[in-house]
Task: inverse folding
């Protein structure tokens, strides 16, 4: 059985997306809906850790309130996919493969050039995996830029919109409330943490509709700085927001989106 855990701050959105999708599931599940309209919890990590220890399922599925499961068999199929794998530490519905390049500068400049040329989608098509649509059923829902899959796909990191953790893994690994002290990057951190402990990180071929595409805030960048300090041995962290170098000076330059300095760096590499 899957325990579905979600933080709600907008009841209308939760009913239109998450709760509607759950209402038509044909398998048993447990729902822990955390009402955070009074801002009781200051971060997703804090809320998920508090709720996760109360759950009774074999798997804990931490999911955004604006996610619609696109099949009545969604939960059952997710469990079936997971049962075919050994030592899964984390599964999601969207994730990124770690690129193989010579160094951090090369990766960031290649991604930057693609974005500058209006071809950033090529990065996601090559390294992104997952069956996710963005938008609403009332408007035209657009597929995300990653490659759709028909089988489980190994990835470096998983996006936070859906995180499925085996209960046994959660008993020994919790979300990091000090590094991810807001509502960003907790899935990326968890991905890297369980991977370092010898578990698999993967994306399931289960389709969802996600209302929001999110946005980068000052809190995101604060968490990002702490994330790369914790995981500097990774050298490069590929996220659904883009690649992230663990060399701090390069990370600050890249995420500041400073065209002049990036252009100078590219010319120096030429």
Result:
């Amino acid at each position: 059985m899957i325990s579905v855990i979600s933080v709600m701050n907008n009841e209308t959105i939760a009913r239109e997306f998450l709760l509607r999708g759950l209402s038509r599931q044909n398998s048993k599940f447990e729902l822990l809906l955390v009402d955070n309209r009074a801002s009781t919890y200051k971060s997703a990590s804090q809320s998920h850790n508090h709720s996760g220890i109360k759950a009774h399922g074999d798997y804990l599925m931490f999911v955004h309130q604006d996610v619609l499961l696109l099949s009545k068999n969604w939960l059952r199929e997710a469990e079936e996919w997971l049962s075919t794998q050994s030592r899964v530490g984390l599964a999601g519905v969207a994730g990124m493969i770690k690129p193989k390049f010579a160094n951090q500068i090369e990766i960031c400049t290649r991604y930057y050039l693609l974005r500058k040329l209006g071809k950033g989608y090529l990065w996601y098509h090559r390294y992104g995996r997952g069956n996710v649509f963005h938008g609403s059923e009332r408007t035209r829902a657009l597929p995300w830029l990653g490659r759709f899959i028909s089988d489980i796909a190994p990835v470096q990191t998983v996006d936070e919109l859906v995180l499925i953790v085996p209960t046994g893994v959660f008993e020994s690994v919790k979300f990091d409330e000090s590094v991810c002290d807001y509502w960003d990057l907790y899935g990326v951190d968890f991905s890297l943490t369980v991977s370092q402990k010898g578990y698999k990180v993967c994306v399931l071929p289960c389709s969802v509709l996600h209302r929001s595409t999110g946005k980068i805030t000052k809190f995101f960048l604060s968490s990002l700085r702490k994330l790369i300090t914790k995981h500097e041995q990774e050298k490069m962290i590929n996220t659904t927001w883009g690649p992230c170098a663990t060399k701090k000076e390069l990370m600050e330059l890249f995420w500041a989106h400073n065209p002049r300095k990036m252009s100078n760096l590219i010319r120096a590499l030429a």
